[in-house]
């Protein structure tokens, strides 16, 4: 029988935008979603850039440069119009 694992709930919030975001993200935009679902409205380029953080934090990892567990700050991959996200896990 297959083992079931709890599905982490992820919160992603835009905390900074440098330049015009092609996806239209603005400071304060946020998404809350189970790790197994793609959040509606979140830029796919940004999702691809922050996905490693989502999986690591979602399953108990802690980043050595972050002071809090289940928390990270990450950027989308656009070097000219960068969106910065705060990631937390419930």
Task: Give me a quick take on this structure.
This protein has one helix and four strands.
State the main characteristics.
globular; about 15% helix; single chain; about 90 residues; alpha+beta; 4-stranded antiparallel β-sheet
Structural summary, described in words:
The protein is an alpha+beta fold and 90 residues long. The protein has one domain (13-67, 76-89). It contains one helix and four strands, in the order ββαββ. The chain has one helix at residues 44-58, and strands at 9-17, 30-34, 71-75, 83-89. Strands 2-1-4-3 form a four-stranded antiparallel β-sheet, with helices on one face. Strand 3 and strand 4 (83-89) form a beta hairpin. It is globular, with a radius of gyration of 13 Å. The N and C termini lie far apart (28 Å). The relative contact order is 0.30.
Principal-axis shape? globular
Radius of gyration, in angstroms, nearest whole number: 13 Å
Number of helices: 1
Poorly predicted regions: none
User: What is the helix fraction of residues, given as a range?
Assistant: 10-25%
Give the helix/strand layout.
Layout: E1 9-17, E2 30-34, H1 44-58, E3 71-75, E4 83-89
Antiparallel strand pairs: 1-2, 1-4, 3-4
